[in-house]
Structures are given as C-alpha cells and as structure tokens.
Write a structure and sequence with these properties.
Layout (H helix, E strand, L loop, with lengths): L2 E4 L1 E4 L2 E9 L16 H24 L7 H15 L1 H14 L3 H17 L4 H22 L31 E5 L4 H6 L5 E6 L7 H8 L4 E3 L4 H4 L5 E5 L4 E4 L3 H22 L15 E6 L5 H6 L5 E5 L14 H14 L5 E4 L28 H5 L2 H14 L5 E5 L5 H21 L6 E7 L2 H5 L1 H7 L2 E4 L1 H9 L17 H16 L3 E4 L7 H9 L4 E4 L1 H13 L2 H13 L3 H4 L5
Helix pairs in contact: 1-2, 1-5, 2-5, 3-4, 4-5, 11-13, 13-14, 19-20, 19-21
Bound molecules: phosphoenolpyruvate and magnesium ion.
The site of phosphoenolpyruvate has 11 residues, from strand 10 and helix 17.
Length: about 600
Amino acid sequence: MTFSVHGLAVARGIAIGRAVLVASSRVDVAHYFIEPAQVSSELRRLAQAREAVLAELNHLHDNLPKDSPPELSAILEVHLMLLQDSMLEEGVTGWIRERLYNAEWALTSQLDVVARQFDEMDDPYLRERKGDLEQVVERMLRHMKGVTHVMPHASVKRGSPSRQQDLQLDDDMDVPLVLVAHDLSPADMLQFKQSVFTGFVTDVGGKTSHTAIVARSLDIPAVVGARTASQLVRQDDWIIIDGDAGVVIVNPSPIILAEYGFKQRQADLERERLLRLRHTPAVTLDGQRVDLLANIEMPEDSPAALDVGAVGVGLFRSEFLFMGRAGALPDEEEQYLAYKRAVDGMKGLPVTIRTVDIGADKPLDRTVKDETHLNPALGLRAIRWSLADPAMFLTQLRAILRAAAHGQVHLLIPMLAHAREIKQTLALLDKARSQLDARGAVFGPVKVGAMIEVPAAALSVKMFLRHFDFLSVGTNDLIQYTLAIDRADELVAHLYDPLHPAVLRLLADTIAESRAQGKSVSVCGEMAGDPAMTRLLLGLGLRSFSMHPTQILAVKQEVIRADASRLEAWAQDVLASDEPAELMGLKN
Ligand code: PEP
Ligand code: MG
C-alpha cells in the first residue's frame, strides 16, 4: 500500500531506493559497513554472542530455584527456542554477507523484520512473543558490546560475496539505498558521508540541526522531523524522498515512480547546467565582487570546495575531529596534521578554522545523549566548553597556529557573548603562542574573528569589532537564540524563521557596522547557502558568504544575476516590514 509521511525539507532533490532501517534498540548499537574481508570475523562475533547467550540461558534454566513459578521456566525455554531458530540466524547472516552490515546492525535489522512478522500474526499468544525475541536480541547485543570488533569503516563499497535465500535482498546490488532512522547524530551522519546511501529520513530534527547540516553537505536528498517514519517504513520497502517538498512516499505505485523518476532527471539536468558556472567569477551585474566560501567538516572536504570554485574555507567545523571517539580527544599533533591537510588541500586559499563547538546537538560521543544538563543549547557549549578546559583549548590553539605556518589561516571563535570571554580567549591565544615560542616550534600569523551567534553579541557588535579582525554571523544559532526555539526540535520547527524582523535587524546592523569600520564580515549559517536569501543579503551589504560546497553554484547564479546597488533600497523596505517574507514573495 502506498502512503506518504511529511517532514522538513533539508536537502534538495529526489532519491528513490530501498529503505535501510537503522533500528533503535534499548542497547546502543553502532551502525557501520564492514569490508568484505571482515565478513567472517563479524560472523564469528555473532556466533560467539549466540553461544554465550545460549550458555547463559541454559544456566539460568537449570538453576531455577525449586519454588520459582513454572512460567519462568517456560519463558526461558521460549527464549532458548527463539535463539536457536533459523529465522533469526539466517537472516542476520544475510545482512552481514549481502549488505556488509556490522553484526549489531544486522541483528537489529533482522529483529525488525521478524518483529513485523510477529505483529501480523492472528494468534495473540504468538504476537506477544515479539517481546521475548527483543529480549533475546538485547542479550546478544550486550554480549557483543564486550567483544572487540573491527573499527567502523565508512567508505565501503557494497559487494555481494554470496546470497541468502530467506532475505528479500535484490539480485542487483546496485539498487540505491536510502537510510531511515529515528535519530542520527551528526557523528553518525559523518560516518555515512562516503557511504552508499542516496537519501536520508529521520523522525526527529529541525532544519538547521547539525544532523540536517551534515545531510545537506552530503548533497543527497534528506527529510528530517518525519515523526513516525522509522516506525511506518519497513526494511527494504521502496521509498521516494522528495527533499524539496519534505515528503517521503512509501511503496509508490508505478505511476508515482515514473513521475518522480522524471523529476529526478530534471534535477540532474539542472545540476549539470549549474556546473558550467564553476569558473565564472562571482561578480554582480554592477561589478561588485562577492566571496563565496565553503563550510567543511573534515579536511577531506577541501577538494569538493575547490571543485565548485570556492575562494576559501569560511568555516571549518573542527568539532567533527573531536566527535565519536569515546572521549579520547585528538592531541596537538593529530589536530595539527588535520588542519594542515585542510590548508594544503585549499592550495593557498584562506582556511577559517573554528575552534571546537561541542555541546547541545553535537555531543562528543554519539551514544551519550546529553541528559545531564537541563538545556544543553543554553549550556556549556562552544567557547564556554573550551574556556572551561584551558588545557584542551590551548592544545587546539597551538595546533591551529602551527598549521598557519603552511598557508593563510583564520581563527574563528564560536558563541562569544561577554567581554571577559573575549579577553580570556585572546589571553589564551597569547599563551599558546608563548608556549610554541618556548618550544622553538614553527607557527604562523592568524587573523582572529568572532562568530556573532548570540543576540547579546549582535547588540554589542562595536565591542567585538574593537577586539577582532573579522566577524562571521552564525545565523543558525542567532535565529535559535533570538526566537527562543531549539533548532534541533522538530516540534517548534515552524517557528524557526530567518526572516523574522528581529533576526534581520540584528543581521543588518552587524553587517552595516562591520562595513562602516572597514572590517570583513561574512555569514556562515545555512541562510548564506539558501539562494532565496541571496538578494536580500546582497542588499544588506554582505559580500562574503560561506556555505556547503554543494550550494555554491546555485548561490553564484543568484549573485551574477543581481544588481547589488539596486537591491539596497528594497532590502531596507524588507527590513522595515512586519512581514518580510511577503515582500520577498516567499509567503505561501
Ligand atoms: C551557525 O550557528 O550559524 C553556525 C554556522 O554554526 P553551527 O551551525 O555549527 O552551530
Ligand atoms: Mg553555531
């Protein structure tokens, strides 16, 4: 039966493929692809866990106290039976061999398949056995947690060493796969970066949640905030993701499939057309040069930035080097080498490295949700986190200064608000330089900039301009904090509005004041990469935009069609309006 699920459109385009469900279990489960050569060791881990649970259940069964209720013994027998049932084992083996899932992912995927079969049973007794199966699987997962396993490998190509009869997998291993999950952390998303998925759907998340941002950087269609998608979609269902409309269509009819296939081809053609702008300078009709810079998450992203003609990196989100490492932070050498790779990769163009912005929806460890703080978005994140751990911060500053010996590096500090935070940051930067001097280490000069992300910072922009060489407006956070809505919460996503008059006022004043003082200012939030916003930002005087490489050409097209001086008066009208979206023709 065809049905559709609605969510938030976060990354454009159409994806059509088979659903791969990342099932959420009560036990934290890692999801990653293995190399074909690792299939047998993964199967061994599975067999070991099965043997261990078998021994555990047998032991429990044989040592039940004499007076225990007879049901207990019966339950354990059911668990033993389920554990040894071929339905589970053969299916799991199939996911490992055919799809190259790690053992835990294979186990939860098969649990999902079998649980659905239980759900469809008429006999209420049998239906309830689903809970028993879940318990058996969780026992196995717990055992696997203790067993060492291969490291995640993100860039595996799918192979098909053999086939399993029971699993409804495709003969054609080139069938596109789309990922459906309740939630994915930004680190999970990053791990899938070079993987085989052609689209993503998650139940939770807002338009500018970091998961959505990474999805956008992958340049594949994505829908977040689709509420119940992961419960409604089944493993291997055919689905269409319409990343423009924020719609997911499950089990489409042939007519719908044909229609979306057509749309997909149109989008591909448009993309090819845009590629022709790669070497066209970003200059407006009235001759104003506009810098289009790239936002990157990893040094390996720099070729993609160069490919689309970015004139530098305007935001390197360095926290991605820190995430998903179970708290073992990268040392100075590791960081230095990563920053140097980004600098070398940009071949002489400037690279703006933002110091670590951990916290809120970017936890250090993806398996640890921040439930210890009442409101993480307002808590110890970004520069607050860095200043709370000066040794860690100094390590990062030294690594960045050393990388600056290899090219143009700009240092960017996130989420500052207070004068004392500015002073502490700059004092630590001086200290990092002295430490390197004392060691005789080579390091280079850096321009130092601040992100304007908190309304308090925008309102005291003059103070920031006194201390910093440049400013970069983080509109994702500026909007979140101005409008008091959590950017990662799909329940308030409808209130997330880049065109709210208060947001525009803070943005316009920051740009105007920086320009008046002859200092460079850019926008590096998602707003900068939205072609619908380009004319307004140009009209407000912005000449430096930083965005995902995938968005640069569409924004460039807007820039070269715009007459910046004629947009100024119109932008002031938009700024003065109660309903800016209406004036911009964006109201529906
Ligand atoms: C922003 O807040 O706009 C920004 C660019 O930083 P991040 O999205 O990483 O919080
Ligand atoms: Mg931010």
